[in-house]
């Protein structure tokens, strides 16, 4: 209503009483504008307000406007109180998706009635309601360690949504976006046939009895001698890890490589909870055609199994792929 009254040059009629020193012509013009503003205000209020206010002050635009402001101010205070009590009463009921959706709805309601909560307090409040769930306890602990994440409650809800999506039955048991030292489980396992007393196993279909190395050891090719080459060594093992990241969207598959020596290597600075830039360090891989260069060092916090692990002095290697 304020915008409409200002557009029609009637807001001053509502906010100020009629001056006593106006001429007859000016008084008639003021009264006409007063009735116009009363007509606008009367047809744009609820029935309850119309009964309580409009009928009592329908002849004075200034008094009507003053009473309308008081009426809506009191109702707004009641609405703010109800929204705040709903937020205090809101708890986690065991359904993570339901919790995320209701949290977003209540956050919008708080913003609508101008209730401001410090963002970090809001984030910790959202996470604190989940500590009673044993399935989420460790993941919540990891999220609280990310200082950049807890500065925005929307990012916290986005991480919880990501955790829910990756944990749903429709998703893979191990998500590629949250795995460390991940081995490809899609390939079928190789069946190995064992031999005893140098006899050919008839269940083996890869070679015949005459080609069997167990009965004909002289047919076995000599082993290669690779001692002269400086080969890099590494191993793969299946281990699920939930990485604390600062980014909301994931556009590429994360990659963590265990160098098999003294340090872990990562290809992006977004995985680090603390990071220090260092002079460039050349990393020998055994392949002269590809050179890896470390440009920094820091700590990584991951969730592996039932333990929260801190990978100290991890290296940032941007060319790692």
UniProtKB/TrEMBL annotation:
Positions of the Retrovirus-related Pol polyprotein from transposon TNT 1-94-like beta-barrel domain: 256-320
Domain of life the protein comes from: Eukaryota
Pfam family, one: Pol_BBD
Cross-referenced InterPro entries: PolX-like_BBD
Protein name: Retrovirus-related Pol polyprotein from transposon TNT 1-94-like beta-barrel domain-containing protein
């Amino acid at each position: 209503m304020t915008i409409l009254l200002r557009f029609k040059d009637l807001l001053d009629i509502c906010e100020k009483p009629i001056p006593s020193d106006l001429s007859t012509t000016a008084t008639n013009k003021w009264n006409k504008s007063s009735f116009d503003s009363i007509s606008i205000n009367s047809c744009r209020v609820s029935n309850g307000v119309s009964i309580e206010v409009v009928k009592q002050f329908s002849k004075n635009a200034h008094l009507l406007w003053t009473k309308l402001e008081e009426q809506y101010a009191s109702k707004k205070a009641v609405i703010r109180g109800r929204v705040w009590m709903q937020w205090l009463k809101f708890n986690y009921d065991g359904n993570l998706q339901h919790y995320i959706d209701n949290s977003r709805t209540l956050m919008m309601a708080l913003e609508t009635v101008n209730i401001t909560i410090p963002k970090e307090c809001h984030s910790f409040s959202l996470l604190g309601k989940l500590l009673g769930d044993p399935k989420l306890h460790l993941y919540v602990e990891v999220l609280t360690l990310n200082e950049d994440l807890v500065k925005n409650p929307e990012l916290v809800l986005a991480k919880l949504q990501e955790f829910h999506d990756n944990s749903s039955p429709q998703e893979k048991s191990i998500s590629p976006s949250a795995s460390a030292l991940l081995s490809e489980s899609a390939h079928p396992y190789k069946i190995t046939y064992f031999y005893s007393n140098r006899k050919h196993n008839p269940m083996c279909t890869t070679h015949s009895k005459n080609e069997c190395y167990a009965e004909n050891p002289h047919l076995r090719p000599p082993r290669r001698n690779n001692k002269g080459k400086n080969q890099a060594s590494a191993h793969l093992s299946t281990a699920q890890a939930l990485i604390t990241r600062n980014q909301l969207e994931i556009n590429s598959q994360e990659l963590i490589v265990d160098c098999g020596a003294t340090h872990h290597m990562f290809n992006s600075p977004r995985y680090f909870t603390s990071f220090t830039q260092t002079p460039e360090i050349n990393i020998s891989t055994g392949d002269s055609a590809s050179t890896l260069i470390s440009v920094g060092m820091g700590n990584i916090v991951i969730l592996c199994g039932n333990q929260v692990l801190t990978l100290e002095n991890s290296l940032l290697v941007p060319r790692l792929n």
